[in-house]
Sequence to fold (276 residues):
Amino acid sequence: MYVETEKRPVRKPVTVPMLHAMKAEGRRIAMLTAYDFSMASQLEAAGIDVALVGDSLGMVIQGHASTLPVTLEHMVYHVSAVARGLTTTLLIADMPFMGDRDTAHALEAGARLVGEGGAAMVKLEGGAPHILDAIAALTARAIPVCAHLGLTPQSVHKFGGFRIQGREASAAERVLTQARAVQSAGADLLVLEGVPSTLGEQVTKALDIPVIGIGAGPHCDGQVLVCYDMLGITPGKRPKFSKDFLAGRGSVAEAIAAYAEEVRNGSFPAPENCFN
Ligand code: KIV
Fold:
């Protein structure tokens, strides 16, 4: 016989319209990456709003120097593992490198990430015309899209490294134009990575959809970090835009809860985590 021994407050599942409402109400969105069931369960327990299975898994799980070697098979495997750890946290899956090389491939990959993997949304990097077409096609088939602009890691070779984007006026204008274009194409969310805080603020104010920053300053509608960066276990130097939330705390659960709290009360990112 099943006996209920503990009553916990039940959180409603986070949905895409709910994220829009959070922006409208000025409530910041806390997002983290996860790549497996156990970490996903920690995010769920801490009440993280959005989990992202990023293709950063190529670097932090597989040990590659970039995200480029990650395949659709890898993504579906990790997305389905993470999905099993979530009940209310919204799940976003990254489109792997070249998964969106044309609309047909983007639709096929999107269908697998959502249908097989269990994601609620897919994330596409860049604002090129073929990406705008893919965003429109996925959205038309009821697959919500998170766009990703600024320092888009799949463009590492084009950028000549993982470099801050949008510092010059013309480059900032380009990011702003792309942001308006991805929203017009149907994106429901935007991740803005590695840009000066002033540009992060401009883009956030210009768009109706929520803007989630990573190294994009404190004015975004929410923040995202790679979970291993914010636990201080990624090998090498911690990126400036991240913070070790495990330092001085007793558990991963406490670190994730502290991250959510600092994102929501606006104390993360601090000035030392931001770019000019
Ligand atoms: O791949 C990833 O984890 C990402 C986030 C860092 C935004 O794209």
About this structure: The mean pLDDT is 96. Residues 169-185 form the longest helix (17 residues).
